[in-house]
Amino acid sequence: MDTLLKALRSYSENTIPILDSAIPLNRYVPLDLSMTNSELSGVDIADPTICQRYIDTVLKLKEGTVAYGGYLEQRNLYADKLGFTSAKASVRDIHLGIDFWATAGTKVLAPIDGNVHSYRNNNVVGDYGPTIILRHVLGTHIFYSLYGHLSLNSLDGLSLNKRFKSGETLGRLGTPAINVNYAPHLHFQLIKDLEGSEGDYPGVCAKDKLSLYRENCPDPNLLLKMD
Length: 227
Prior knowledge:
Helices cover about 15% and strands about 25% of the residues. By secondary structure, the chain is an alpha+beta fold. The strands form 3 sheets. The protein has an 8-stranded mixed sheet with strand order 1-2-4-11-8-7-6-9. It has a two-stranded antiparallel ribbon with strand order 3-12. The protein has a two-stranded antiparallel ribbon with strand order 5-10. The longest helix has 15 residues, at about 50-60. It starts with a helix and ends with a helix. The model has no long low-confidence stretch (mean pLDDT about 95).
């Protein structure tokens, strides 16, 4: 196994909460938004209202507060968004992070010590909206974590290199109007090499690029241990 992956796995034996610490861990429930989920057949989950309705159904059934999942999940969530389905390029529909679906305004926590690498409001429909990227040092390894779909005021008071300790509030979840047309959620992604990007990095890829992105974007659950 890659030495960074080993370091992520060994960082903590316990689950690391990434949303408001007042939410009990047993209120996090798995969510399947993949194309293979028969419950979504004929459901337009690209519509944030319809998507939220399905998520609420899952949360009610499983008595949850936060629905999570999605690493390397192939989805129809991006079907209506320009740039994901362009005829000039392969369709981008494979998700590279874990999503945490919860009420807008919910606190987002830094899961591990890090410094602000960059931040930006990526306000094109289908993008992340307000986004923060942290830089982390773990032993001899440097890697990055991306937090997308935040509230606009999550960017207030930020500065490059600002330090966040594990468990500190990094921001809050944005509304669909701010997170550019998604039901409220956090997109959390780990990245080895930002390839020169600042305040942004692809969170969805095409099948023909999957091997490259899977190598560069490790499973966030190695760190968080949600399962």
